[in-house]
Design brief:
The chain has helices at residues 80-86, 121-124, 132-137, 190-206, 220-228, 248-260, 274-283, 291-294, 334-340, 347-358, 365-386, 402-409, 413-417, 421-429, 443-465; strands at 21-25, 36-40, 43-48, 52-56, 62-71, 88-95, 99-102, 111-112, 116-118, 158-159, 164-167, 172-175, 212-215, 237-242, 264-268, 307-309, 394-395. By secondary structure, it is of the alpha+beta class. Helix 5 (220-228) runs parallel beside helix 14 (421-429) and helix 9 packs across helix 10 (347-358).
Length: 466
């Protein structure tokens, strides 16, 4: 391989560092040594550190297996839509030996070849068939990059996107949400929707039966999680990556911790060695790179008995991929999608983007942009990166719920454009948190940082306008 050959070295037959991963195959021999196995019809499911939960109907007949860390799955089966509405956490559902579903943000990674399904491409191709052209196109892993539209770094292996399911009989993928009857209209009173979001975030946090670790930053998404963790805040381990005195996150986190008397740690940022970088890519299936790859050794400071709850996916409520020129009836072009995902405008990606958009033409542009964020950014970028965290008991974002995604997508257009959700969540869940500015320093540093922020906003406005 011409590019970054060193990073594509394989650590053969070493799956001891793959906690939280799985493989589903017709051959028992495909399972790594020492993994727990279970037969499901003709299939063998092998996993390392992922609990199995029986899913039964009202007559207690087994109709499926849920793998991972679901919360709320114990009620009798009442259909897949109802299961999504009541089940939180990080999970994979194998239903009646026929269909595979995963949680709304795909936080339990799923990839597939022509013969098996697994959490990581590494488990499916011990002798990898690298797609050198694709790898070169996204400059992986030299820049902060990932593979879109369900593609991976290997030929013959694709990723199952959120809101899609996999048919074990036909070996085909299909979209199961949103349907034609799904109400995603945005002409709504925002406050009842915010109340629902707060209620479901609180439930997701309170239902975790383990100690918690949460990030404390200057941003909106972590602030919403902080507000909704109020019932458990006294026992939560809050942390902030310590990038030095110039860090806005460090300054705001200290203010929050002092005001609320939180147990808060600054974690010195540790850069991984070359061998550690290679091992992380191997474990995550050479799927994503960037800052978390380079500093993942910092995660060694996490407590192994704790569940890590990142603020990922709160960006849906902030209209992350929307631009000022967007209109609901103005269709997205292929290059619009590639530009927003920061992907090269090459035909290999244009063809994938075209096929992806063809399945969404019946939806308005704002809904499509939200789905792009959930399915591409969360499903293809965040999902495989979770596999790199082998320190925490497990990791998932509380925002990854069908009810929360629906409610955030139904918030009024201008409400979302003006970033009002975080303040209202804080005001409702923990009054006073909204008074500490987001992403801002104090004193002279505040003025300098404010000028930089205004400059960035002006540039983004001009880019969106033209």
């Amino acid at each position: 391989m011409r590019i970054a050959e060193n990073y594509f070295r394989q650590i053969q037959n070493d799956y001891s560092s793959f906690p939280g991963q799985f493989i589903i195959s017709l051959q028992s021999a495909d399972a790594p040594a020492g993994w727990v196995q279970r037969k499901i019809g003709d299939w063998f499911l092998a996993s390392h550190g992922l609990p199995l939960h029986d899913i039964c109907d009202r007559e207690n007949n087994l109709i499926g297996i849920c793998l991972g860390f679901p919360h709320g799955q114990d009620a009798p089966w009442a259909g897949i839509d109802e299961f999504y509405l009541r089940t939180q956490g990080k999970w994979l559902l194998i239903l009646e030996e026929k269909t595979i579903y995963h949680d709304p943000s795909g936080s339990l990674s799923v990839v597939y070849s022509d013969r098996a399904i697994a959490s990581s491409p590494t488990l499916l191709q011990p002798e990898p068939d690298w797609d050198i052209e694709r790898i070169s196109a996204v400059q992986f892993p030299e820049v902060d990059s990932w593979f879109p539209f369900g593609l991976t770094s290997r030929r013959g292996i694709r990723r199952l996107l959120p809101n899609h399911c996999f048919d074990l009989q036909t070996w085909k993928v299909k979209r199961h949400w949103p349907t034609s009857s799904t109400d995603l209209s945005r002409e709504n009173d925002p406050l009842p929707l915010v109340e629902n979001i707060v209620t479901n975030l609180r439930k997701a946090i309170n239902d975790v039966p383990h100690p918690l670790t949460l990030s404390l930053t200057a941003g909106r998404d972590s602030r919403m999680l902080l507000a909704c963790s109020r019932d458990r805040a006294i026992d939560i381990d809050f942390y902030t990556f310590d990038y030095g005195r110039s860090s806005v996150d460090v300054e705001v986190a200290r203010r929050l911790a002092k005001r609320l008397h939180l147990s808060h740690r600054l974690l010195p940022v540790r850069t991984a060695s070359n061998d550690e970088l290679v091992a992380w890519l191997y474990r995550t299936g050479h799927s994503v790179s960037g800052p978390i790859w380079q500093i993942h050794k910092t995660l060694d400071a996490y407590y192994p008995q704790n569940v890590l709850l990142p603020g990922m996916a709160g960006e849906v409520g902030r209209a992350y991929y929307w631009r000022s020129k967007d209109q609901p009836t103005r269709p997205l072009e292929v290059d619009d999608v590639l530009s927003r995902c920061k992907l090269p405008r090459l035909e290999m990606f244009r063809a994938e983007a075209r096929n992806y958009l063809d399945g969404l033409r019946h939806l308005d542009t704002f809904v499509v942009l939200d789905l792009i964020y959930i399915e591409q950014r969360l499903g293809c970028w965040a999902s495989p990166s979770y596999l790199g965290n082998i320190r925490s008991k497990y990791e998932f974002t509380p925002f990854s719920q069908r009810r929360i995604f629906t409610d955030m997508m139904k918030l009024p257009t201008e409400y979302r454009r003006h970033q009002k959700l975080a303040k209202d969540v804080c005001r409702m869940a923990w009054p006073g948190l909204e008074t500490i500015p987001f992403n801002e320093c104090s004193g002279g540093r505040w003025l300098l940082q404010r000028l930089k922020s205004r400059a960035k906003q002006t540039i983004k406005y001009l880019i969106g306008k033209y």
